[in-house]
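QUALITY CONTROL LOG
STEP: pairwise intake check
CHECKER ROLE: data steward
CRITERIA: each record must contain a sequence immediately followed by its structure tokens, with no blank fields

ENTRY 1 OF 2
RESULT FIELD BELOW
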Amino acid sequence: MNILGISHLEPSTFGHYTSVAILDDDTNLFAISEERVSRIKNDGGYPSNAIQLCLNQNNLRLDNIDNIAVGFGLEKQHMGQKMEAKFCSYAKDSGYKKTAIERKNPIFYDHQYIHARTGYALSGFKKALIICLDGGGVDNGEPNSGGMFLADNGEIQPIKYFPMYHSLGLTYGAITEICGFTMTDGEGKTMTLAPMAENESEENKDKIYQRMCKVFPNFKGTDVKSNGGVTFIGKFLHDTTIVSVNDTRLLLLKKLYHKNLIAWAAQKRMEDILIDFVTTAIEQTGMKNIVFSGGIFLNMIMNMKIQQKFGDKINLFFNPLASDHGNAIGATLEQYYQETGKNPISPYMSLYLGSSYSNEEVLSSANRFNFKITKVNKTDSAIDLIERGKVIGWFQGRSEFGPRGLGNRSILSLATEQKYKDVVNEKVKKREAWRPFCPTIIEEKSEEMLVNSIYAPYMILGFEMKNPELYPAVSHVDGTTRPQILKKDVNPDFYEVVKGVGGIVLNTSFNLAGDPIVETPHDALMTLKNSEMDAIIINDFLIEQNK
């Protein structure tokens, strides 16, 4: 059985990028975003390039695909038929005949349901409550902004959907626009901007927080009845509408307050809502395992607050593929479950799901540039360069799926001095100086460095640092950090590099501002050419600028 999963029907209204996954006969999973191949940041078009790459990497043709599963719901009563036809017509862009896709009878799964399937599969829980929240999607033919599900032994049952006019994601996105960033791409900036207001007066913070409570939806709790299962009735969220950047409440906030304070109030308000939300869900369901999925849960600091509040009482899992691009994988997993009744992936699976490249391919690309190329012991060379204060690109093995560089497509430097953060921001990433970087920390060092450390391999969960002053390049102004905690068996070569520089390293995704993460050796070499990185290590080769 070969299953092709796709995350979107067409260029997204909300700007999310398109991804593709293939689950083959041997349950091997391959996944990649269209942007990695097209080199267009947040590419939301038909994923013709990604489909072709997936097929090539798995030695398949479209004829070998048994099912096409789409992780995006259809408005069955309104736009469903039109959207399905449009989806089929997009296949022309890939060189396939329209009928080739139509003959496969694409299966369209509901949006939040696929968020739930993805998170549940990666969690390894047998029984769990799944909470999904994002900007919006379609389930049961209706637009919504989230849902709650009960999962037991593979089966997932919806409990409650939240309508679009209760969208926490769109509200936070609109506030992101007010802060001067871009909705669907800049919410992480709003999150990291929030601590910059910590020194503001309590009076100002209280005033703006009260105003922010009128912008965000109010949480009113739930009514729950149990009769062989759990049924939610009534409403979770009340008294709100979709907030636009022209909302008079937001315009007034922008007029009265600095963007630092606006970001702080928005972050605190959303944290407070979710803490109340989860408290009620636990009380009313009695569940001991909770999975969080959907784009809201890319907010690592909010996740940290949830973990701090509930982590010693119940088991929590934050889906690292929480945004819509992860639904390509979710769709393949759902289709596989429908066919076999099984989950084909392991809990906490690695996200190294893309392409790898041979030494011959590396040299073929490198010889097109005027670079110095040296064959080296890659781990020893990386340790030496980093310890000497160099900023390097690290390109090894299969590319990561998702928005994080997790040690196969990463830019690395020392974490122990502020200057390295400044250098990477200014000369490599070319972004705002206040934006923090994440570290990779080997598992054996995590308890020494982090408060209440738990295994967190995906950079999806924030922590307070025990001694942030020791690692200023990867600790934010509030003393928090967003680490990848690395086990040796997950990525042995990268583990040896991090261990060799003291067990912690600054690790940011291998790309320049405005570019997708690099996929091929050529992409990496172009990044070296267009930045002030000192060197890159691709497979067994150290590649440097000729001086």
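ENTRY 2 OF 2
RESULT FIELD BELOW
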Amino acid sequence: MSTIVTRSLTKKHVIILLLMISLIAIPLKLYTVEFSLPVQFDNLGYALDSMQYSEGDFFIPPKKNPGWPLFASPFMSLVNSENFLDYSNLMRTLSLGISVFTIFPMYILLRKFFNEKYSLVGAALFAFEPHLNYISAQGLSEPLFILLYICSFLFILNKNSKIAIIGFMFAGFVWWVRLEGAILFISLSIIYLVNLRHSKHSIRNFMICILIFLIVVSPMFLQRNAQYGEFFYMTYGGSIFVDEYSMVFAKNVQENDGSALQYIEKRGIGQFVDKFIIGGASYISEGLTKISFPYLIILLIFGLILALRPVSQNHHYTRANWIVMLTMIGVLLIPFSVIHERRFLYPLYPFLIIFAVLPIQRLVEYGFSTFSFSKKQKTISLLIILSLVVILSTLFTVGVGKYGYGQIDLEKENEKIEYAKFLVNELDGRMFAEEGTADYTRNIAITEDPNIFKNYKSSRIKDPHPDNYEPGKWVQISIHGKDLVDMINNGESYGLKYIAIPGHGSFHFEFLDDVYNNEKMYPYLEKVFDSNDQGFKKFHVKVFEINYEKFQKFILNE
């Protein structure tokens, strides 16, 4: 490898090195994936929707855009299995393949900013990034989303306004995959008007760009209008204009709150700005810091400063990179102030990596104030940097101490599955489940019987759901309360019957920890499940049934 790097790089050399980078990255991407476990949460939904689309039913769920399952649906039609795990693993394999493939367009994008050697360094930073590797084989939409994002940005970085049309076409595809794709249209429009406004026929071509974008996204919105009577219908069943994440989907909260105006009327414009603007900026800064470990954090400290006055880069392209990043961060301020989901920030990686390469280039090419590197020293420096990246990425992937990911604990996950079977098959009624105490339940409800998952229709969801409760079935419901008494009082009118509490500590409601540790102090809570009684070694949870008669007596006696 060092021999190749020291001499002038041909296209053949570049392809060889990119293939080597990809091959090194694959085991890092696979390390945290367990193909013997069923998918859950969003992964499960994507797999089921993809199976539905493969059968010709293109009903769009109200919470998701259909791009990723649509992309996977032709591959789904090639599988004929009685085991849902085969379908979910296909989604995992496809997302892995996309993630590996994206290394190549990432290199092409980097070539807009750097020569071959530094573009390869940037491609390696992207390929070995442990957070991206973690989600690459989960069957989620992020790999396809990031690939299309890169392609769209690549075509807007052009002096020819006609080429920009292709960028807007890809932006339409991005919106098909995730709702956040709308941000890209805003970014591209700003970049076009800033960088290409003086090009020939710029206004005409910009109108064409907008038209192409609308043509690409229009089938999705026509379908939504046919289903829901609104072109832009999208609901998550909750509102983000609340004080904390535990209130987003709470039934008792959403009936009384829901809009920004309601929040401002109750709490004032000052608290709104403090919560959703200042607070959002704070949480995004924290999120960016966390996703920058283990090696990007070091590079970005200097890279973002150097990006203010780039030396070797086209300033139009650098400005475009800033526009994409700042636009995305700006739009995410409000949702991120409540929903601290780091996945929202992952599309920023390609643009962060562009800036992360700047200090590497500046150091190697220009050296320190006292000396500069020779050609051989430059090569050695790049190899050392790449080696450190691989080492840090590997250590973070395998997990060192409390840092990093590590492999999935199969024993713990299998205990979760056994517990989920108990909930779905043995209980009936609505249950509040603290975070981590209802994993795999939807999977169990849908995928144990091939007749259910093969005939799944998102238009008539068959698994338990708070809004279509049937007697004899267990369902999960979200209820908010300032303390246990408040939670039970709020939940009574919604038919709350059970409360599940994790042994590792409640994430949202600390008062539940006392119930777990001192259950005898709460006589109105009758324990129906204890993981310790089942011999569980890794997963600890207790489920209590609420006795409302005893609860009322207890309250009166207090």
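INTAKE CHECK: passed for both entries
DESCRIPTIVE NOTE, ENTRY 2: Strands lie at 429-433, 474-476, 496-502, 525-530, 541-546.
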